[in-house]
Structures are given as structure tokens and as C-alpha cells.
Design brief:
This protein is of the alpha+beta class and 255 residues long. 47% of the residues lie in helices and 19% in strands.
């Protein structure tokens, strides 16, 4: 019984942290209680512990809670352990400088894509993406680049989870997605044509390791005003070139 209470408390604390992560400006106890479905006194008690260990901060004026610096510290330790990010970072900066668009590095995590690095462009248009954010695989260029070179069993798992519509351009039909992934596999790159966010277009290529296994994807992202249809072939060539160099750094020797 005691062990079950401990597990329950941990689950509740994690739910609270995940809800706070969704709100940049934080939340008050009342709103947070409604979100997680717990009594305000229970939420307040858990927040007190999280506050003590710096997992959350409390604004003294608004009394709102938000994520503290501890998750960032722990996330930094994990990112530092990722050889991929360390090997790719200088190339991301070089690519972003060459094309003057935002560049992302994304890895598959369960059935989603996880941003592990990002270099912003000098454009006035700013991507909303952040390191640590998750994106749907079926609705993004990075995701489709990963899926196209993944085992069919993994693709089927993503499809079974449901192909949620993010915009009117999102591919939600499984058969259409499978045909699309075959095209991606043949040409070596994927395009997100306003499929995840209106007004945003991306071009991505897969990254492989020494086992010829797809482990990530590299993308060039920006406004449809700067990433025009006419510019896609040039950007596709660039992103495939850089993805290949990163792959070789990870031990890939080609197919």
C-alpha cells in the first residue's frame, strides 16, 4: 500500500510538470488543479516539494508556477551524452549560414520526433520550434524522412496510433502516406508543405549510423515566402549533402 502511494505521488508530480511545460507563462494552482484533475490542496502540496528541489518556480507577484531550471539542467546532461548532437552541431550552424533558414536536428522517440538541436536563421520569420519539443512523424519533413527509411513494423505502429490532421495539407490516409514514403525513399529527401504548420515549409533528409539504421533527420525550415517550390531542389541537395556528412561521422559507410 505504501509503495502504491509513492508511485501515485510520482505520477501526479510528473503530470503537473508536463502540464506546466505546456504554458510558457505558468499557471496558478486553480487552473493546474483543473488540468490534472486533482484537489487544489494536493496540487499545492506537490508543488511545494517541486519548488524545494527547483523543478518549478513561483512568481511572487502573480503566484503562478512554471518550470524551474532543474529540468533544463537534467536535459543538458542528456544532450551532452548524445554523440549525434555533438558531432552534428557545427554542421547545423554551417548549413543554416549557407541557406539562411532555420535548421533542425530531430530523432525518433517512441512514435514521435524529438528536437535535439536547432539553429535559427537571420530571417525576421521565426520558427516556434524548441529543443525538447515533440512533433508528429507523419506531418513533418523530418518525420517522413525517418519513416521512409524505418522498418515497416515501425511505420505501421505510427499509423495505428492515428494520423492526426494538423493542417488541411496533412496526410491522414494510411495508403496515401505509404505511397508518399516510397517517393521519399526513392528521391532521398522529404518535404513538409504546410502539413504541420500553416505558412511553414520544410525539406529534410535522413541520418544513418554504422548499422545503416536511420537514427535522425536533418531539416531546413522556414516561411513559404522564402522556401519556395522553385528553391526546394537546391535546398534538398544541401540538406542531403549535410545529412550524409553527419551520417559518416556516425560511422555510416553508405548503402
Amino acid at each position: 500500500m505504501e509503495r502504491e502511494k509513492v508511485v501515485q505521488s510520482i505520477e501526479r508530480a510528473l503530470n503537473i510538470l508536463e502540464e506546466l511545460a505546456k504554458e510558457k507563462d505558468g499557471m496558478g494552482v486553480t487552473e493546474l488543479s483543473r488540468r490534472v484533475g486533482l484537489h487544489k490542496s494536493t496540487v499545492h502540496r506537490i508543488l511545494s516539494v517541486l519548488l524545494k528541489y527547483k523543478y518549478v518556480d513561483k512568481d511572487p507577484d502573480t503566484k503562478r508556477y512554471r518550470l524551474g531550471m532543474k529540468p533544463l539542467y537534467l536535459g543538458g546532461i542528456i544532450l551532452d551524452r548524445l554523440d549525434l548532437r555533438r558531432e552534428a552541431h557545427d554542421l547545423l550552424k554551417k548549413l543554416a549560414n549557407e541557406v539562411n533558414e532555420t535548421v533542425h536536428l530531430v530523432i525518433p522517440d517512441n512514435d514521435m520526433g524529438l528536437y535535439i538541436d536547432k539553429i535559427d536563421s537571420n530571417q525576421t520569420f521565426r520558427m516556434r520550434s524548441q529543443i525538447g519539443w515533440y512533433v508528429p512523424l507523419h506531418a513533418t519533413a523530418v518525420g517522413k524522412a525517418i519513416l521512409a527509411f524505418s522498418p515497416r513494423s515501425y511505420v505501421d505502429r505510427v499509423i495505428r496510433k492515428g494520423l492526426k490532421s494538423c493542417t488541411e495539407n496533412t496526410i491522414t490516409n494510411p495508403e496515401v502516406l505509404l505511397r508518399h514514403l516510397e517517393e521519399v525513399r526513392l528521391r532521398g529527401y522529404a518535404v513538409d508543405d504546410e502539413e504541420n504548420e500553416p505558412g511553414v515549409r520544410c525539406v529534410a533528409a535522413p541520418i544513418f549510423d554504422y548499422r545503416n539504421k536511420v537514427i535522425a533527420a536533418l531539416s531546413i525550415s522556414g516561411s513559404v515566402l522564402t522556401i519556395t517550390q522553385e528553391r526546394i531542389p537546391y535546398l534538398a541537395k544541401k540538406v542531403m549533402e549535410y545529412a550524409s556528412v553527419i551520417s559518416k561521422r556516425m560511422g555510416w559507410r553508405g548503402f
